[in-house]
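Reviewers of the previous submission asked for a worked example of the structure-prediction workflow described in the proposal, so we include one complete record here. The input consisted solely of the amino acid sequence. No template or homolog information was supplied to the procedure at any stage.
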Amino acid sequence: MILVVDKKRRLIILFIIVLFSPFYLLYILIKRNFGVRKKEKIIEDLANGNIKNIYINMADRFGDNLLSMPLVASLKKNFPNIRLVVLTNQAGKEIYKNNPHVDKIILIKNNWINQSSVDIIGFLKTFNKEYFKKILELRKEKIDLLLEIKGDFRNIIFFNIWLNARFIAGYALSGFGKLLDWEMEYEKNKHEIDVKLNIAKFLGASSVNRKMNFYLAEEDQEFARNFYKEKNIKEKTAVVIHVGGTWEPKLWMVDNFIEIGRRLKNKYGFKIILINKKSEEEKNKIFVAAMPETILAGNLTVGQSAAIMKNAVLFIGNDSGPMHLARSLEVPIVVIIGAELPSRVGPEEYGVVVRHDFTCQPCGQTICKKHPNCISGIEVDEVWQVIEKYLIF
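From that input alone, the workflow returned the following structure tokens.
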């Protein structure tokens, strides 16, 4: 099943499938065609306790890792005796390090997850000495069931199939599903939380919980208390703003956020806290230059940022990881969404979406040539009206 929206990427993927297919024919013959590795066998072994561990490949973007939290919790609840191991990147490690449902976190690295464009050199840099060392280490883990939840063909052909797992199951949104022992059906019209939870249901989970829970460490809460004290911020008098995101069609203009910040301060007396990651520092400099009284909370750990956000009266931002973090903390949200569908990634009952409808949504484009497009056409006054209504109620 190939569900890549962007036509250019789809053509590239189809070319790669044709190019690599002969190399993986032998793998398919050896691993698939002897009638041992099947969907029914996985379900049966889970029910009978013959699967002792589940490893989840979660080397993914920050927001996607957060949206996977209900899946992790539901797997542990329904299969409490199974050892649950998360394979993830640094962002995922910070998200799950205090999660009581995770038995072990193994740090892995690839250079394709965060690519917003085709970067052959960056891609090839993945295959270094550390990459092969990690493959050999994981082969010794004796993995019973490996779950691929992103459905990225690069995860499948360059990582998952080399780990010597008894079973590999999950999604294959960009091809090579035949290399999985069980390619699960991806329901593209559902919220990403439900899409991920479907994996637990397919495996036989009798009950699942959609709630996202980020577990704050005491040291992070202490950090936030000191931060608020040092900055002279009283509880529930601050609004957290995040101006960043992944791709250009998801980014509302920084100047628009600045105007929103000014109105919040001038009319309601709120203090503005600006969060960011290192790659977003330039945008924050523009914001602070225009509004010097802004309080910066950049380059912090995920836990520190979460603890600061927890005490805010409101989160305002683009469709991004910090928006999902706000949801996991039950902080009220106003989100500006461009190229995506709120039904897939929106905050649902935890916030309000400001959006313009375009026939090309969702597009999957990293650059949009239309003007005005789905994100740039959203006016400051539209967002302000939503914020004011939200603050009143």
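The mean pLDDT is 90. We consider this example representative of the routine output the project will generate in years two and three.
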